Amino acid sequence: CLQTSNLPDINASPGQPWKYSTCIKKGGDADINLGLLLKKLNDIQADILHVKKRQDDMKIDEFEIKIKDIPTLQADVKNNTKTIDTLQSQVNNLQQQLRINNLEINGIPEVSNENVSNIIYNLFNALGTNEKNIIET
Q: Keywords for this entry (predicted)?
């Protein structure tokens, strides 16, 4: 029986070599193949751990970049909010200027098939206002 004491321990922690705990009967190529297989498995395990670490490092790098962008993005939002407020104020002022010459008349009953323009002209004539001062929209 060939002892496997020179092979790594199968119960070892990740990243550590492991070994098969029973003995192997001398069988020539089988002994060599098992040793090569175990070595390849250890190599694969080490490669997987390396890939996981690289992946974790890449995620950390991405998060750091995103975190560095936060103050700039916050400043952009603040500037955009100020711009929106300014534009909204300008729109409100323009709308008010458009309505500055408007006159709203309430309390006159509606009659079907009435001509609103004639009613307005009659109203302004009764008030003594010249028709030329009326702007039609």
A: Coiled coil
CA 20 to chain centre: 50
Q: Is the pTM of this model over 0.70?
A: no
Burial class (CB in 10 A: 0-12, 13-18, 19+), 83: exposed
Buried b (16+ CB within 10 A) or exposed e, 11-36: eeeeeeebbeeeeeeeeeeeeeebbe
Name the one residue in this structure whose structure tokens are 């190599």: 43
Q: Which positions ≥6 away from 12 have C-beta within 8 Å?
A: 18
Would you list the domain boundaries of the chain? Answer: 29-104
In the block, tokens 């009613």 appear at 119
Contacts of 42 (CB under 8 A, 6+ apart): 8, 17, 18
